[in-house]
């Protein structure tokens, strides 16, 4: 643990080497070092239980970096970028750097790192240009999803202020570097862009428009991004109010559950102000693996509801099949195996199947939210005069399961 105890005294020694871009050879090691330093500036801070190194590298993701540590130093090396050059191409500019960048940081005073220290070193990449790292971010709603998403923003080096109705849920994030806001209004007052990840339409409306709500702190030059799963009507109501304050509005519900949220692999279904979408793309990319811009407000909600309607029906059918198979004396494990090899194999069955068989009901996607999404789908289908009989039947199953859950009856086969 010698390294931890020398926190205040450590000196950063940078020795760098950069492979030159085609046809532009850098003369000597000094120039190479300054190239790497200039193009991949880094901050390194030692916190109570981990080291955080934040590096600016435009256009690169974690997969583009190789990070190695030994007892004395950490080395961060990029892969070469690829420039595709076809035979008939006529090039007018070749400014992008395509070689590798290497940054080495020597640990202080020759301190030896223990295995735990090495594992605690964390490297965050923050593309310098276009990361909008200067923006102060707010995050309202620290449930299963919000906590994981806000954490990824903090880890990526953003200045994040969090708020949650049950204040105790802020503590972990505050200890990891987030600021705490006292009310949604207080958060939007302090922040340039505020994200909201709330349970349902009632919560989304209350937090945005209620007393001490987000609206009170919004104004020209700010943005409000609602990533909760709500109906198009709720989105449009929040959108109108936000825009009347002079702020920009984006809805961006997500597909993907607790694990994708933790791993920064969500899928964003965004719609609303394109300017705000462009501003928050780097943050969406920190929290997600892909994103869709769907145009007018309401389209994100509609897309999310369609996706979750299908998911709800699939899960109900999956559970029904397992119960029927069990009654018929089939081995449930074998049912999962047969499913996994056929045309209806999918990540959700593979992930949920084993936990269902183990009667492990710890929620990643709470049942009440899946039922809410089916309810929203039925409401949408009413408005559009479209029959959705399968989803309607599935909704009845979830209603029963939800009632059982509320009575603390754990014998519920449907769980997400
Ligand atoms: N979990 C999942 O797999 C996914 C969920 N979603 C959607 O994301 C949203 C959040 O989901 P998740 O994080 O799982 O849900 P949780 O139930 O874990 O969290 C809900 C959040 O909403 C807050 N909240 C609820 N009611 C109110 C209210 N009236 N006023 C203020 N805050 C309120 C809760 O605060 P408090 O802590 O005080 O209760 C909590 O922060 C939902 O719309 C859900 O459908 C989307 C994709 C995946
Ligand atoms: O909304 C839930 C999900 O898994 O996506």
Task: Give a quick set of tags describing it.
416 residues; alpha/beta; Rossmann fold; N-(1-d-carboxylethyl)-l-norvaline Dehydrogenase, domain 2; 9-stranded mixed beta sheet; 4-stranded antiparallel beta sheet; 41% helix; disordered N terminus; binds ligand LL5AMS7Z
Write the layout of secondary structure elements.
Elements: H1 2-5, E1 14-18, H2 29-39, E2 42-46, E3 51-55, E4 65-69, E5 73-78, E6 101-106, H3 115-120, E7 121-125, E8 136-140, H4 144-155, E9 159-163, H5 171-175, E10 179-180, H6 184-190, E11 193-196, H7 201-209, E12 223-226, H8 232-244, E13 248-251, E14 254-255, H9 258-263, E15 266-272, H10 274-287, E16 288-293, H11 299-327, H12 332-341, H13 347-357, H14 367-383, H15 389-406
Parallel strand pairs: 3-7, 8-9, 8-11, 9-10, 11-12, 12-13, 15-16
Antiparallel strand pairs: 1-6, 2-3, 4-5, 5-6, 13-15, 14-15
Helix pairs in contact: 7-8, 11-14, 11-15, 12-13, 14-15
The structure holds NADPH dihydro-nicotinamide-adenine-dinucleotide phosphate (NDP) and ligand LL5AMS7Z.
Q: Can you describe this structure?
A:
This protein is of the alpha/beta class and 416 residues long. It folds into 3 domains: 9-127, Sandwich (Immunoglobulin-like), CATH 2.60.40; 136-296, NAD(P)-binding Rossmann-like Domain (Rossmann fold, 3-Layer(aba) Sandwich), CATH 3.40.50.720; 302-415, N-(1-d-carboxylethyl)-l-norvaline Dehydrogenase, domain 2 (Orthogonal Bundle), CATH 1.10.1040.10. The chain contains 15 helices and 16 strands. It has helices at 2-5, 29-39, 115-120, 144-155, 171-175, 184-190, 201-209, 232-244, 258-263, 274-287, 299-327, 332-341, 347-357, 367-383, 389-406, and strands at 14-18, 42-46, 51-55, 65-69, 73-78, 101-106, 121-125, 136-140, 159-163, 179-180, 193-196, 223-226, 248-251, 254-255, 266-272, 288-293. Helix 7 runs parallel beside helix 8 (232-244). It is globular and about 70 Å long. The model is unreliable at 1-26 (pLDDT under 50). Residues 229, 255-257, 308, 365 line the site of the ligand O=CC(=O)O. It comes from Selaginella moellendorffii. It catalyses: 4-hydroxybutanoate + NADP(+) = succinate semialdehyde + NADPH + H(+); glycolate + NADP(+) = glyoxylate + NADPH + H(+). GO terms for molecular function: glyoxylate reductase (NADPH) activity; NAD binding; NADP binding. This is SHSP domain-containing protein.
């Amino acid at each position: 643990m010698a390294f931890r105890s020398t926190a205040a005294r450590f000196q950063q020694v940078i020795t760098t080497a950069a492979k030159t871009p085609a046809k532009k050879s850098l003369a000597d090691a000094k120039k190479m070092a300054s190239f790497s330093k200039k193009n991949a500036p880094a901050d390194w801070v030692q916190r109570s239980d981990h080291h955080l190194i934040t590096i600016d590298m435009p256009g690169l993701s974690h997969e583009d970096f190789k990070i190695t540590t030994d007892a004395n130093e950490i080395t961060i090396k990029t892969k070469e970028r690829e420039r595709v050059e076809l035979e008939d191409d006529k090039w007018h500019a070749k400014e992008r750097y395509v070689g590798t960048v290497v940054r080495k940081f020597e640990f202080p005073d020759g301190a030896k790192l223990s295995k735990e220290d090495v594992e605690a070193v964390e490297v965050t990449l923050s593309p310098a240009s276009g990361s909008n790292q200067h923006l102060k971010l707010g995050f309202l709603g620290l449930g299963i999803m919000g906590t994981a998403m806000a954490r990824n923003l903090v880890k990526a080096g953003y200045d994040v202020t969090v708020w949650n109705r049950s204040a105790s849920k802020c503590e972990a994030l505050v200890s990891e570097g987030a600021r705490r806001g006292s009310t949604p209004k207080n958060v939007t007052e302090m922040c340039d862009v505020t994200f909201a990840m709330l349970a349902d339409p009632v919560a989304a409306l209350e937090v945005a428009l209620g007393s001490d709500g987000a609206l009170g702190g919004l104004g020209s030059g700010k943005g409000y991004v609602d990533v909760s799963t709500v109906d198009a009507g709720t989105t449009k109501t929040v959108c109108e109010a936000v825009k009347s304050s002079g702020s920009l509005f984006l809805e961006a519900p997500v597909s993907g559950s607790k694990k994708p949220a933790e791993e920064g692999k969500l899928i964003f279904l965004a719609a609303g102000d394109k300017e705000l979408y462009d501003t928050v793309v780097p943050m969406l990319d920190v929290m997600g693996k892909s994103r869709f811009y769907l145009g007018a407000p309401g389209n994100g909600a509609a897309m999310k509801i369609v996706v979750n309607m299908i998911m709800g029906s699939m899960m109900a059918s999956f559970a029904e099949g397992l119960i029927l198979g069990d009654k018929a004396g089939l081995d449930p494990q074998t049912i999962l195996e047969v499913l996994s090899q056929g045309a209806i194999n999918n990540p959700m069955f593979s992930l949920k199947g084993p936990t269902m068989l183990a009667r492990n009901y710890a929620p990643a996607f709470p049942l009440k939210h899946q039922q809410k999404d089916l309810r929203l789908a039925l409401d949408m289908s009413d408005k559009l005069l479209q029959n959705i009989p399968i989803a309607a039947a599935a909704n009845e199953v979830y209603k029963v399961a939800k009632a059982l859950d509320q009575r603390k009856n754990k014998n519920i086969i449907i769980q997400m």
